[in-house]
Write a structure and sequence with these properties.
Layout: H1 2-28, H2 38-71, H3 74-91, E1 97-108, H4 110-114, H5 124-134, E2 141-144, E3 147-149, E4 155-158, E5 161-164, E6 167-168, E7 174-179, H6 183-194, H7 198-204, E8 207-211, E9 215-220
Antiparallel strand pairs: 1-7, 1-8, 1-9, 2-3, 2-7, 4-5, 5-6
Amino acid sequence: MKKVIHWRFTLILLIVGFMIAVQYSSMKSPKERDTRDIWTIRNELSTEKQLHSELLSEIRELDRTIYTYRSLSDENTGKALTETVDKLYRQAGMTDVEGPGILIEVRPSAESIAFGTPIRDISPDLLTRFVNEVSRYKGFTLEIDGKRFTTLSSIRDINGVTTVNGLNVSTPPFSIKIISPSLKESEKMYNYLAASPIHDDFYLDNLLLDIGKPVEQLEIRGFPEKFDNQFLKETPKGE
């Protein structure tokens, strides 16, 4: 009887030891190895931190709006709502904007012209990478080939053509306008874009970024289309 118990105990220990060895091996040698270098991880971490900061800013802004509504009397509520609507219109790009900024020309490279290389449209991925570079700075207003770009905008490939807000982006050359809150901010963005590796990405697609010096006055037109109100209805007075 003791021998049977001894063999059972030994068998259980072998099974447990085998399971521990397999688990240790799987933890030590994962199936998918992370081959990213430290700079790639740092860039991804920076992007996530920036997104976190933007979300916190939006939460604080909404908290201030709620506090303003609660602290106002009934007579001033209408004025506060009007100011909020105007602010949302500005954020949605419905209004014209003037201020300091920089003008950028996207044009074919000299080599592609000299060798007669066919000029291709800018790809959605490349245009998105450029917008991400600009998005490192806050408070800017962007226009791509005469098309207002906001948080509601999208860059897509439709039938092989790059579009912004569903409108075709012209074959280079075309211009990009960026308006900043101040001339100092425009100078910072100019210096950043002038030294950015995004130039290499454009050059690989036979394109060049010609970044103009910051100017004190630049104008961007508002989004031409209007939003249709499909759900909200005005409540009759007295209800």
